[in-house]
Amino acid sequence: MPNVEETVSQAENRRGVEIPPAVPFSKHLRNTLKDTLLPDDPFRQFRNQNGIGKRFVLGLQYVFPILEWFPSYGFRSFRSDLVSGITIASLAIPQGISYAKLANLPPIIGLYSSFVPPLVYAVMGSSRDLAVGTVAVASLLTASMLRDVVNYQEDPTLYLHLAFTATFFAGVFMAALGIFRLGFIVDFLSHATIIGFMAGAATVVCLQQLKGILGLVNFTHQTDVVSVLRSVFSQLHQ
Predict the structure, then answer these.
(1) Out of 4, 158, 182, 218, which could bridge 177 as a Cys pair, Cβ 3.0 to 4.6 Å?
(2) What is the pLDDT of residues 100-149, one digit of tens each?
(3) Are 207 and 231 a contacting pair, CB within 8 Å?
(4) Dist. CA 91–CA 131, nearest whole Å
(5) Residue 30: inside a domain
(6) Is residue 81 part of a domain?
(7) Half-sphere exposure of 159 (CA within 13 A, CB side)
């Protein structure tokens, strides 16, 4: 009869996992960068494609997805999009006006910011369930940044020009992040940081609405809780 130790050793050898072959550092680094910067592998559709014309068409469809789905777009899809568009417009119109007021901009600017981004995304976007437009935090940041430079009541034209300049460079910066596939940077932000930022932004937005709700004239330009509450309680006579 075989020895007990030999039987156990044979069983462990059968269950053992082979050590993977060593991978060169350069290859490991290249694969890691590829998984990080190009997780969706945007060049897969160009493989095994003969002809420059075919690759050019695929490239245009990748940048402008509307060229791919619009030829098969029918009346049924248009009817559904019309109903959903009217529904979203009922929310986007007052939301755009309120966000413009948060940034101390004319209400018409808020309407443009609610209409133009979805129009551009319909041509260049790929998601059917994504909302595109301004957000309250961006409006508050714009107002807090520009009011340190110019007073929107004293020089509204200069304030408007600076707002356009700030949003232009913000768009250039975001486009560069998309071109260079730097969205993975968000992965380094912890969940607690994101939740705290969202909760803080909601608190700031609520506090800024006290000016309109209470009808205060001389309201603080600061966004912290202490300054806002001090401004409110110092004007109780109003």
Answers:
(1) 182
(2) 988 889 999 999 988 888 889 989 888 877 778 888 888 888 888 898 88
(3) no
(4) 12
(5) no
(6) yes
(7) 20
Let me know if residue 96 belongs to a domain: yes
The percentage of the chain sitting over the pLDDT mark of 70, rounded to a whole number, equals: 92
> Does 6 have pLDDT greater than 80?
no
Annotate the chain with DSSP letters as a single string.
---HHHHHHHHHHHHPPPPPPP--HHHHHHHHHHHHH-TT-TTGGGTT--SHHHHHHHHHHHH-THHHHGGG--HHHHHHHHHHHHHHHHHHHHHHHHHHHHTT--HHHHHHHHHHHHHHHHHH---SS---S--HHHHHHHHHHHTTT--TTT-HHHHHHHHHHHHHHHHHHHHHHHHTT-GGGGGGS-HHHHHHHHHHHHHHHHHHTHHHHHT-SS--S--SHHHHHHHHHTTTT-
* Single pTM value for the model: 0.69
Domain count, the chain: 1
- Centre a 10 Å sphere on the Cβ of residue 99 and count the other Cβ atoms it contains: 26
219, two tokens: 């309201």
Residue 22 lies in a domain: no
Q: pLDDT per residue over 56-114, tens digit each?
A: 888 888 888 899 889 999 999 899 989 988 998 888 889 899 889 888 899 999 999 88
Rounded to whole angstroms, how far apart are CA atoms 204 and 228?
9
